[in-house]
Every structure is written in structure tokens, then in C-alpha cells.
């Protein structure tokens, strides 16, 4: 028998929430990355006999939050150290938009009793480190190349999930944020072009 997270009987939901709550608190208090959130969600999903589509929903939330955390940090780096005004301005925009997206992702994940990362995971830390060790125009170029890559992943994922997510609330979130993400990807490409013109 397949059960939906949104239609679990009250007792089952309460028991599952009690079992997951200590893990979620531990996960959020130690600054976990994407792998920890995925492991927590996988354990919950296995216990609840969840469908593959529901598992894809959970993975989407984790990946979207991981990307948003990385984009916030890259945006801050652009604000602080980029040489091109277009790259600095884009950094300001991306920090604001991704903090808004992160808040929405965290609220929705909490409502669905799912975990999302609260800090950069290993892959994101490595990507950030690679960009942050650059200087001058090379920093601008590396930052924008990375931001375009991550924002393309975002745009693709939100485009897919606005139609394909199992959960209606996740479909709604993906639909709400898809167009702004698409616009910001275009802006990222423009800032990347400006960075590429630097000596």
C-alpha cells in the first residue's frame, strides 16, 4: 500500500514526526550539507513506504536549497571582491533572490517534515573555494561561470518540477519561482559576458 505524506493517518504522521524530529534538530544544529539532508529524508522515506515521485520531490528540495546556499555565498563574494560593476551588481541581486528562495524552501520542507541543508555541503564548499582563491578579473570570470552553471541547474529543475512534482505545494513553489529564476539566468549570462571582456 502506498501512502502519501499529505494523507498519512494522524497517528502515523505523529509517530513519524517524533522519530524524525531529533534527527532534524541534530541535522540543522550542526550545519549539515546536502548529503546529510538526503540521508535523513531517505531514512524517513523508507520508513513511510513513499513513492519514487515523492522521493524525487524530497531530492529536489535538497538540491534547490544546496544550490541556493552556494549562490548566496558566491553572491557575497562577488559583492566583496569582484572587479566588474556588472558582476558586483549581480552578486547583490543573487543574494537577495536566493535568500528569499531559501526561506520559501525551508518553510515548505518543514511543512512536509523533510530536511534541507543548512550549510554548504562538501561539493559546494569545494566549488566556493575554487572561485574564492582567484583574484582580479579571473575571480569575476570564475564566479560568473559557476553562477551560470548553478543557475542553469536551478532553472531546469524548477521547470521540470512545476509540472512533474508529486506534491501540489512543491509544484506550486516550482511554478512561482521558475520565471524569476529564468530571468536571473539571463542576467547571469549578461554579467558573465561582461566578465569575459575583462583583461
Automatic annotation (TrEMBL):
InterPro entries per the UniProt record, alphabetical: DUF4142, Ferritin-like
Keywords: Signal
Tagged with keyword Signal: yes
Gene3D superfamilies per record: 1.20.1260.10
Signal peptide residues on this chain, from the entry's feature table: 1-31
Pfam families hit by this protein: DUF4142
Coiled coil: none
Domain DUF4142: from-to ranges: 56-190
Keyword Cytoplasm: no
Protein name: DUF4142 domain-containing protein
Species: Hymenobacter monticola
